[in-house]
Amino acid sequence: MIRNEGNVDKKTIRMIIGPTGVGKSAFALDLASKIGGEIVSADSMQVYKYMDIGTAKPGLEEQKMIPHHLIDIVYPDEEYNVYRFRKDALQAVKDILGRGKEAIVVGGSGLYIEALIRGIFEGPSRDEKLRKELKGEEEQKGKGYLWKKLNEIDPISARRIHPNDIKRLIRALEVYMKSGKKLTDFLTENMVTAYNYDIIYLHMDRNALYERINMRVDEMVKKGLIEEVRSLIIMGYNESFQSMKAIGYKEVVAYLKGIYDKREMLDVLKRNTRRLAKRQICWFKRYPVKKVVNIDLKGKMHFVF
After folding, report:
1. CATH topology of 3-121+190-205+283-304 equal to that of 207-278?
2. Spelled out in words, what is the top-level CATH class assigned to the domain 207-278?
């Protein structure tokens, strides 16, 4: 059962989703300018200061034109997770509505979108010792061990979590081992939603999207992605931080360390970004989309209702 937070009659919020590179930011800016809206970013990387080019963050002029929220709110060495995001996003939406404006949620980070659409639960607290033990079991008994273990306990959660997603596998097992209840049960009983969401999905032909991603990577490098990463390292933000393990940053770090030459770095970065887009496309199929907007390679929009 999904509980409602607050009034039974929930406000409907527009949400723009789609794979990386499809043009969500441009679409959101255009929509916000037409309806008097403000944008709430649901991007797990745009929250970080100093990480601008690799995250395709809206420029300062765009942010001046339309107010943006949840951009540049933490430093690259700070932990920012789905729980903090949900709290921050709901507060931002509340503030926007309080000013008589329309809130537009925009992003491609699946877990962040999930937290708003499906809700989130307050499960057992973190147990670092248990997490370390579970990670050790995966290393000792082989890749896929934790997924098989979870599948025996909670097959529904196992179907939702990729075998390589060690962080989420450990959390699902941690929930069960500390509470005796499956993660699935917690989600069913405790998930809450604050608003209804009118979801707009931006779609592009797969080959065209991949071509656009390849061009965008080249453009990021021209704009100074390598220099941005080098500057972050000089400031003390190295690959040990979660922020620096993101696509666009880990590949450049490897290049700066001499692991890749520039051509190899570009090829790997493009490949990893295309793979991310593919995962996002699969992820977003689970949501009840109200509108689909087909976008061609030149960015022209064709509405499908």
Report:
1. no
2. mainly alpha
Q: For 128-189, which CATH class?
A: mainly alpha
Residue type, 116: L
Tell me which fold the domain 3-121+190-205+283-304 belongs to.
Answer: Rossmann fold (3.40.50)
pLDDT tens per residue, the chain (305 residues)? 333 444 446 899 999 999 999 999 999 999 999 999 999 999 999 999 999 999 999 999 999 999 999 999 999 999 999 989 999 999 999 999 999 999 999 999 999 999 998 877 667 788 999 999 999 999 999 999 999 999 999 999 899 898 999 999 999 999 899 988 888 777 666 556 779 999 999 999 999 999 999 999 999 999 999 999 999 999 999 999 999 999 999 999 999 999 999 999 999 999 999 999 999 999 999 888 988 998 876 666 655 54
pTM of the predicted model as reported, rounded to 2 decimal places: 0.78
Please report, for the chain, the start and end positions of each structural domain, with discontinuous segments joined by +. 3-121+190-205+283-304, 128-189, 207-278
